[in-house]
Specification:
0% strand, single chain, MetI-like fold, 187 residues
């Protein structure tokens, strides 16, 4: 479910839970674990780790959907034949399920590598505040701030074009690796 909601709603959830008057601080204060509320969202400490956790939470459902769909697409007759031949559950997983997941794995790797430099302007823009603004800056947010803040359209365009070229190169490299490992590429 988190994959289908916007970053604004994710931040709203984070604000309700982690704000100085939010649920987590209220519970910790009532239990006597904390004496003063912690500023989880306003703190610049471990900002990259926190952003990674939010991104992982939001995207875990999408990856699960993709892998479950790939597993359901594996022919049941292969699994049944392996069980008839005496294969254990781990042998079925190792010799049938995992090889059946490799095409899906490479598609997801290819999509993620092509978007390697696209690190989520929306997430960082929504979560930035006066306390963590200097620490939360990522490439997309930097390009946005250059273009909208100081009017540096030419520099932001050049950075975006360079980012696109790197993405295409990563996509081609992933396709070549797929050809070497699987014997076939995607393009």
């Amino acid at each position: 479910m988190p994959n289908f909601i916007s970053w604004v709603l994710v931040y709203s959830i984070a604000y309700c839970v982690f704000n100085s008057t939010g649920v987590l601080n209220s519970v910790l204060l009532n239990l006597g674990i904390l004496k003063t509320p912690q500023l989880f969202l306003q703190s610049a400490n471990h900002i990259w780790f926190k952003m990674w956790l939010w991104l992982t939470w939001k995207n875990a459902g999408w990856a699960a959907i993709m892998y479950i769909a790939a597993i359901s697409g594996i022919d049941e007759q292969l699994k049944e034949a392996a069980r008839v031949d005496g294969a254990s559950r781990m042998q079925v997983i190792w010799h049938i399920t995992i090889p059946g997941l490799i095409p899906t794995f490479f598609v997801l790797v290819m999509l993620n590598l092509a978007n390697f430099l696209t690190n989520g302007l929306e997430q960082y823009y929504v979560f930035q505040n006066a306390f963590n603004k200097d620490y939360i800056q990522v490439l997309d947010l930097y390009v946005y701030n250059i273009a909208m803040g100081s009017g540096g359209y030419s520099l932001s365009t050049a950075i975006s074009m360079f980012k696109s070229i790197v993405s295409v190169l990563l996509l081609c490299a992933t396709n070549q690796i797929s050809k070497m490992v699987r014997g076939e590429g995607f393009v």
